[in-house]
Amino acid sequence: MDKRIARYTKVYGKAAAHAGISGKDAIVASFAGRLEDMYASELFRTHNVYPTINVEHVYAVIAMCLELRSHGLKDAQVIDALDVAFADRRRAFSLLLGAIDLLPNCYAIARRWNINDHEKRVADGSIDYDLFEVREHSIEYRISGCRYVDMFESWGVRPLCKVFCDTDTRSYAGLTRHVEFVRHSDLSDGPSCHDEIFEKGY
Hints:
By secondary structure, the protein is an alpha+beta fold. It has helices spanning 3-18, 24-39, 42-47, 55-70, 75-85, 87-101, 106-124, 147-154, 162-172; strands at residues 127-134, 138-146, 179-185, 193-199. Helix 2 (24-39) crosses helix 4.
């Protein structure tokens, strides 16, 4: 089996087990076959053109969503299963965020992250910004188009892009000493992704 498919099949096995889906061999084989077909699709070739997006990873998550839905899981259950399956990966990132949260220049780091990410996303066309305003102690942006959402929509599971939309929420939940994050809406179930980031104390 292709190494990338084998790696994601192992993760999917954790999600399926958490969801209580029986017949391990059959369910992982079904997932592996689906992901292989998705990687070979014309849609994958169309989407795999954005340097800032790991499209192989996005497609693997979409395949997991499709498989879990095929077993009758509701979207909230799918998201819960994926949260468990990717817990180890997220734990390492949480440790990094915890270390950054201790730094007095934490907001400055978050500010630079946003500026750099905005520049790269605009350059490769992966995000469409209606607003991106950077002030000394705050940042606000509003996004009307997102290729992550487009990929999920192409496979009929747009609401489950919430898995990626919530990445920012989880990240800023680890930066609470100096940074406040406010999400007004996201594109998985709303008209735009509208966020504000504030330096606390100002």
